[in-house]
Each structure stands twice: as C-alpha cells, then as structure tokens.
Amino acid sequence: MTSPGTFEYVGPQWLEAVAAIVADLLGDDPGPLDYCVCEDLTSPPPGRANTPAGTLSWSIHFHTDGTVVGAGSPATADLRIVADYAVHHALSRQIWAGDPEIMAAAQQRRRSATAAGELRIEGDMSAAPDPIRRLIAQLHDPVAEITA
C-alpha cells in the first residue's frame, strides 16, 4: 500500500506528478527547446509493460511551446536510459538529499548495473541544452519522494 504522497512507479498518477515537478523546476520561460529524454525499463512486473517491445517506458519531451510527460517509448530520443526495472526502481526511490555518501553509493550502484548489462545510456547528456541539464540535475529527489 502506498501513502497519499507516493504513486506507482511509471503509473498514470506518477506521470502526472512528474509533469507537475518538471513544470515547477523548468520555470516559466526555459527558452527554445526541442529535446526528448526517455526511460525504457526492461523486465517490468507482469501486466505493466506499455510498449510492443515489452518495456515499461516513459518520456519527457521538451518543446518550445511546452513540455509533455507521457507513457511509452518514442521512436527517437536524444537521451535514452535502458535499465532493468528492479534495478532502476530501487535507484529511483533513493532520496539523495545532497548527501555525498548516498550519492556516491548510488553512483557505484549505477556503475555496477552498467557493468552487469542492467543499465545503459544512449545519447550524450553533455549535448543537452543548459535548461535540460539543470532540470535533470534537480529532478531526482522530487521524483524519488513521489515514487512508491
């Protein structure tokens, strides 16, 4: 059972809450943007896949005229994270709170998952527009707080 402030990972209410967090963090006028970030989670729990490939996927597409957070995996994404559901869910729920030890442990878990083939990143984050890089740097903890 989840508390009133948390939602099923990548469920409809979670996506709505993430959209609100993104809007709040991005601000009123991020400037001209066209960038897409996607997460494709492999081996999701039974009945949770939302793509023909069998992944549980979601994306944030930043447009000049607005930002869209939604379910599914777009054919093209500027940055795509492909990860095992259980591994990524555990990483996504960990609140860092700026604690260097917690952040270092999470970084080590990501490296281990990458080495084990359970996580890969396609695309170059350094090529993202500045507002997107700033947003992604701030997005983790607010999303972790709402993730059941």
TrEMBL record:
The protein, known as: SCP2 domain-containing protein
